[in-house]
């Protein structure tokens, strides 16, 4: 399952294990790629769109997508990015990713 970070002309997909919201090592590499393109002092907003699959309870999937987005936000905050430039969208299973 993935979450998508999009910024004007490019995007990066960050993958999670099934039913999990912790950042895997390959997700950290994908976030590093994103960070190479967006400077810490950027004032342009970017969007974090968190998804789940359609397996399981709808409300649980929405909570999971929120946790996935928050994991990405937390990582970026710890890296020095401003919270104000991050727009979060929780898709849950409304737009499932596999």
Task: Write a structural description.
- The structure is a single chain.
- With 98 residues, this protein is an alpha+beta fold.
- Helices cover 35% and strands 26% of the residues.
- The chain is built from 2 helices and 4 strands; from the N terminus they run ββαβαβ.
- It has helices at 25-37, 58-78; strands at 2-7, 10-15, 46-51, 86-92.
- It has a 4-stranded mixed β-sheet, covered by helices on one side.
- β3, α2 and β4 (86-92) form a beta-alpha-beta unit.
- The longest helix is centred in the C-terminal third of the chain and has 21 residues, at 58-78.
- The radius of gyration is 13 Å and the shape is globular.
- The N and C termini lie close together (5 Å).
- 26% of the residues are buried.
- The mean pLDDT is 83.
